[in-house]
Amino acid sequence: MKTVNEQRNLIEKLVKSNNKFRGNEDLLEDFCSETYKRSYSLLDTIDANSIEAYIAKVVNTAILNVLKENGRVRRRENKYVSTRELLISPVPAKPQNLEVQEAENTSAFVYEIADPKDSFEEKIVRKDILQKIVDIVLVAQKNDPAKEYLKIFYLRYVKELKQKEIAQEINISQAEVSKRLVEIAHIVKSHF
To answer: Is the pTM value of this prediction over 0.85?
Structure first.
């Protein structure tokens, strides 16, 4: 494709036509940027008509990636489910940027290649937060070992088992699993 504007228009058209875009319109720029990152080398070398079907698949992957990064979907049993359907989210969604862009920038997309240092730092921050959560759960486990907080936490958020499956695994009622998950959430929340 010849111009960046043509590339932007194609990507935007494909993103807006994807069914996952509905309800996530606030992430349009992120979807377009992620798609561009995944396909920029092809966009410069191949004609738009012959590449559109391929870019549509890239758009789908890019949208899923952005939704995962923003905490809006998560993988469960070989499919993606909305985190809005989950009772307790193990990692809070990233806060949305509510700043209004200037009128001259509203239609502009910024296509940046991810800086490996930024990604590395972000991974360290996530790891630190996860480690803090695990440490909090470990202390709760030591304070009340009979409640099996650590095992329930592990089964729910690492193994991604449903409450019913956890109940069968540790031989307690599903209601008790739900109650303990809420207790874990309150304990973790009180330390943040």
So the answer is: no
